[in-house]
Design a protein that fits this description.
Elements lengths: L1 H13 L1 H19 L4 E2 L7 E2 L1 H70 L4 H37 L8
Antiparallel strand pairs: 1-2
Helix pairs in contact: 3-4
C-alpha cells in the first residue's frame, strides 16, 4: 500500500501543474453545472431568484398591471360618460334658456303692442282677447317643447347609463 501512495505522490509531484489544472477545471465545471445564475428579485430585492423564478415574478407583475390597466380603462370610460352627460345637460340648459329668452322677448313684444294700443286709445276687447290667446298658446307651445326635451334627455340617459339624468330646474 505504501508503494501506491508513494507512487501517486511521485506522479503528482512530477505533473503538479497539469494535475492542478485538471483539478481546477473539474471545480469550474462543477460550479458551472451545479450552480444556476441568479439575479435580484423584482418583487423582493432582498432575495435572489433564478431565471425561472424571474419569469414567474414577471408573469405575476404583468397580470397585476393588466388588471390595473383594465380598472383605469373602466374609470376613463366612466369619466367620459360623465363628461358626455354633462355636455348634454349644458346643451339642454342653454337651449332652455334660449327658449325662455325667446318667450320673454315675445311677451315683451306683445306687452309693448298692448301698451301702445292703450296709449293710443285704440284698445278694444276683441284685440285683447286675441293677444291673450296668442300669448297663452305661445307659452303652452314652449312649455310642451321644453317638457319633450327633458323627457328625451331622461330616456337617453336611461339607455346609456341606467340612471335618470338630473336636469336643472
Amino acid at each position: 500500500m505504501k508503494d501506491l501512495i508513494h507512487a501517486g505522490m511521485k506522479f503528482l509531484d512530477h505533473y503538479r501543474y497539469s494535475a492542478g489544472a485538471i483539478i481546477l477545471a473539474i471545480a469550474i465545471i462543477g460550479v458551472l453545472v451545479g450552480c444556476e445564475a441568479q439575479t435580484v428579485s423584482i418583487i423582493d430585492p432582498s432575495q435572489k431568484v433564478t431565471a425561472q423564478g424571474l419569469q414567474i415574478e414577471a408573469a405575476k407583475i404583468q397580470g397585476d398591471l393588466a388588471s390595473e390597466k383594465a380598472a383605469i380603462d373602466a374609470a376613463i370610460a366612466e369619466y367620459n360618460g360623465r363628461i358626455e352627460t354633462f355636455n348634454q345637460q349644458i346643451e339642454a340648459a342653454q337651449s332652455d334658456i334660449e327658449k325662455k329668452e325667446a318667450v320673454r322677448a315675445e311677451l315683451l313684444q306683445i306687452g309693448g303692442a298692448v301698451a301702445t294700443s292703450v296709449a293710443e286709445g285704440s284698445v278694444n276687447p276683441a284685440s285683447l282677447i286675441g293677444t291673450g290667446i296668442t300669448a297663452l298658446s305661445l307659452a303652452l307651445g314652449i312649455g310642451a317643447s321644453a317638457d319633450n326635451r327633458r323627457k328625451d334627455a331622461k330616456i337617453q340617459s336611461l339607455k346609456k347609463f341606467g340612471e335618470p339624468a338630473t336636469q336643472p330646474s
